[in-house]
Amino acid sequence: MTSELWILGVVVLLLAVGLFLLFFSQRKESETGLPRGRIIYTDTATWFPNQAPLSDRNLKLTGKPDYLVEEGGQIIPVEIKSGRAPQSPWEGHVMQLAAYCRLVQENYDVRPDYGIIQYEDRAFAVAYTAVLEEELLDVLTEMRQDLFAADVPRDHDDWGRCSRCGVRLDCDQRLAD
Ligand code: SF4
Question: What's the confidence (pLDDT) of residue 154?
Answer without folding.
Answer: 85
